[in-house]
What we know:
Helix content of chain A: 25-40%
CATH class of the largest domain in chain B: Alpha Beta
Largest sheet of chain B: 5 strands, mixed
Shape of chain B: globular
Number of strands of chain A: 35
Oligomer: heterodimer
Amino acid sequence: MKVKVNDTELELAPGTSAIDAVFAAGYDVPYFCSQEYMSPIGACRMCLAKVGAPRQDRATGEWILDEETGEPKIFYFPTLMATCTTAIMEGMVIDTLSDEVRGAQNGMVEFTLINHPLDCPVCDKGGACELQDRAYEYGSGLSRFRFDKRHQEKHHALSELITLDRERCIHCKRCVRYFEEVPGDEVLDFIERGGHTYIGTLGEGLPSNFTGNITDICPVGALLDATSRFRGRNWEYDHTRTTGLDDASGSAIIVDARTGRIERIKAALNAEVNKSWIDDGTRFGHEYVDAEDRIKTPLVRKEGELVPVTWEEATGYVKAKLEGIADKELGIVLRADATLEEGVAAKALADHLQTGQLDHCPRPKASVLPEGDAARFTDLATADAIFVIGDVSEEVPAVDLRIKDALKGVSPPASLPHGVPIADLRLKERMPRKAGLLTVAAPYRVDLMRHAGRSVCYPVGGETAFLSALVKLATVEDELSEEEVAALGMPVDEGRALIERLAQAQNAVIVYGSFVLASPAARNAVIALAKAVKAKVMVMGPMANSYGLEAIGVMPSHARYSYQQMIRGGAKALILSGLDPAQDPSVAEALKDLELLVVHHHFANATTALADVVLPAKTGYEKDGTVVNLEGRYLPVRSAPVDGGQSEDFTGLVRYLGEALGVRLDGRSTRSAKRALNHLLAVDLRDLPDEGLLAKAKSRPLRRVSVKEQEAVSGNVLLVPSMVRPEFVSRNPQLRAAFGDVALCLHPDDADQMKLVGGERVRLSVDGTLRKATVRVSETVPQGIMLLPATPEQPVGLVSADLATLVKESSELEVA
Amino acid sequence: MSDAVMGEPTPIISRKDPRYQVTMYRHVGVDGAWTLDYYSSHGGYRAAKKAIADMGVPDVIAEMKASGLRGRGGAGFPTGVKWSFMPPVDGRQRFIVCNADESEPGSFKDRYVMEDDPHQLIEGMLIAGYAIQASIGFIYIRGEYHLAYERLLQAIREAREAGYLGSNLFDTDFSFDLVVHRGAGAYICGEETALMNSLEGLRGNPRLKPPFPAQAGVYGLPTTINNVTSFASAVHIIDKGAAWFSAMGTEDSKGTKLYQISGPVARPGVYELPMGTTFRELIFDWGGGPSMEIKAFIPGGTSTPMLPFSDEYLDTPMDYGSLAKLGTMLGTGGVILIPKEKCMVDAMYNIVRFYAHESCGKCTPCREGVSTWLPKMYQKLLAGLGEPGDLELMEEMVTNMRGTAFCPLADACAMPVQASFKHFRPEYEYLVEHGEPMYPKRSWWQE
């Protein structure tokens, strides 16, 4: 459609909003209520413009012409129009520059400011505030309102993570709409009416995993991230765009740091991955970086004490110790959120030292690589049938949001010259959701089931049987046996309906994660199911680079060289990065027998207590490198200016150790690692764009480890994925305050039987490791089972806890 | 009255015309008129039976279109055309909604229809429900109308028992039932999209149009919303025919309408008059004339701009077009007289305060202008603190509010204020200059 904005003519797709036409033409109008990826509502009335269009004669279909000029006559709307809620029409004329329009915009700025406190000098948003900018650009600079401004609460804690200043609020409704439209958690609304209107909650806090996004979209300083409040001015921050390493989504984030400290994390736009949303774990889970007990120098054990030394001395010590150790007796293990570059460095070191004892952890028993092409986020967002096995909202929350996009049935918007459309007129408030396309299966009730047309709770630990029964329904005519029906967790007709829905869909996606990956047989079953119904699969690996580390083969050369074997006497020397296996007392005993234990970590822990050498590690915000998300997308990790002392990532460790050993290893720097990766994957990882690279790499893993299928496991504790990483929770005080401590969830009847009440702090030996947790009682948990967040050392799966070891900690002790 | 054109009878534009019959308000004021016995013994449900059993859906809509009935809620959209906007029947639930949230100051016509003649509304909704093929009707009734609510509930029970509501009505396959929902006291919920939100249990904010209710109304389903009086009119249009209805009124405004008159007048109340009746006839012949000296009158509820009480305006016919020409609106037909001795600034503050209280807070000009700044300016003037420049500021502010807001509420406040400035600016100027009003405050209580 042809549109004319002021004097610029341009061609745009039908359905485009007038405000997007204005921006596409290179002009500007102010706006506060519109927000990319959300419904336009026309509330702030800032984007007013004079709009007109030619008309066709109803009888003849001819354009009505202007008698004087002979051109089609433009019929203007009787009033100025809010361009965000006006769709373009053929030949539409939009005027944003006339005195009438400017006068109205000026008047609207004046109205918006009369009750705004104008406390910019003490407001955290100052310098990055939409209202401030627009007031300068479109306001008169003078105030004619000579009355008291509205007084409301200035420091209202909406939750532990978000503080609301009700005086600054300009009622754009972005936050209210966000909760209904994006995560579908209606936890915020307007209260009162007219000039008294304010934002508030019905109950306590904001029960959602995606609350922090409202601080990004608030156009003023009304909603602020409590972790960064009063920490610095916007122009003082160094903004580093990088990739979040909290989960396998590869969500884009901006790390704002000041004087060497991370003050806040904001969502960055990656239209094909996380759009502009991130979960609260990713946003608020950064405080551990600055924890007081962070290790900032290398330490070597001298006379039983760890003593600060230089990197050279530490690696010299390691070199000397390694001389007495034969080939294949050294083990090297990375945490699964290490970058590809670190992986290459670890491989190079292992190759040089001629050991096959190389692994990453957590590494599920089954491969995290999909067979064939991985489903992409855009496949998920446009899917017409989705089958989820697991708890995506906790495991990879970005997947949860993209599934909710699919439920709206609105495909991702086309990009315009100015980027994502400001007002996508296809989106509406309170859109009907197509819940019928979503089926969610898990061993307990998960949050996404609220949005699903079909929810299935299969027996705990029964993934293989559950999926095999579905495969049988999809491929064989035979009736299911009684056991198979029980494993299905739903009536057989429902199972058939699910298969039919998936098979008939044009674009079906099956999403699975750690529950399935815990068993190769379950994984094989889900792949068979996907093939039978012609669905793409999305595999949620346990950590940010599980996909990449497996793809480049940071894997043991033999099953007996796996991490679990290494720490139980399989190796004589160990280099562990980011892991803490000594929490398990039996492992700690085994580690004591090592000839050399090198621990590369951020914090002192049970394993560093046994280590000969402790090397300071960089956190995910301090590294430079590349990770591969669950789509197989290569994403850049960039270092923010954070004071980590002398910490190094694994490439740094290999550089120092290589120097000590007198060799130049691949991966001694990110540059050399990228060269090696180019050789390995045939993908050039230098200068990756922000949105990442979906390249066809050699997808066959270079090393595959055969795993013997274990006997059917049993237990009374199900280790489950968690958005809030339990290993950092004690050093993330704000996140802990909002989401609570590590939770031991159990059914009310079980709680009664064990004489436990919600909120009680307990200690319990779970699979040999002493775990501390707070009791949470919930009917979503099946009877006879307890849920506890998994850690890298205790991955997702069913384990046994010795209930005799259960000890209640009194809360007074905690205070002391 | 003009002479008859050959062969064509003159339209009825005065209640004094002997051909004129009162229809909608025939039973109001009669004791017991709200019972089904009374209603059915006075021809009740005859029209509904005629429409549902004897007429096809297109015939009913054609009849409504031919009658020229325009929506009686204030905006005056042709009712038959509105009914024809419903999408084709596709298996989805469809709704007919009655807007009985009568909350415009100066309007009180629907109240007595529902209190004294609730079956008339039920019958009208039956006809409309049939015309748009809706099986469920909602009556969104103003929360304060308690007696009307009780009477409606009672009437619906009676109608159900008598088989006028329920399934297979009049031995056809048409089924229909009614739900009465009480509002919680918000003027904005008289706006149709805010009404739908409120009906769904949401906050009473207006919704974006398009989509219009016919496409996505209550719960996103096809919906038609009409005023109580529109439904009542439909009963008589079907009963007596479109020709009977369109024989009354003027060129663009057909039929009979309920006018209300309040303020210092001998007989305030509701009068059913043919459209095109003059203000003079309403005020002097039916209202019995003013009981005090009058300086202005509001033609159709407080949101319509006032007119000076002079011969120039009193002979204006009360129809849509004539009032539009004068820059005001027919609105709900609620005429309010303003006495000469009443300070106009204070009178306007009373109106502005109402809109300030009723603003929903969704959009900026209404929340900050109507609901915050404008009433504060009036308070300032009335406290004797007005300064030079204040009036110009108010005029500019009102201009900025007009035509810029999301829904018509801001206009409903801005337009009467503009009219008061246009006709009575000297009173404002006097107040600013002297610090006290031209007509001092006094008690208006009359025994």
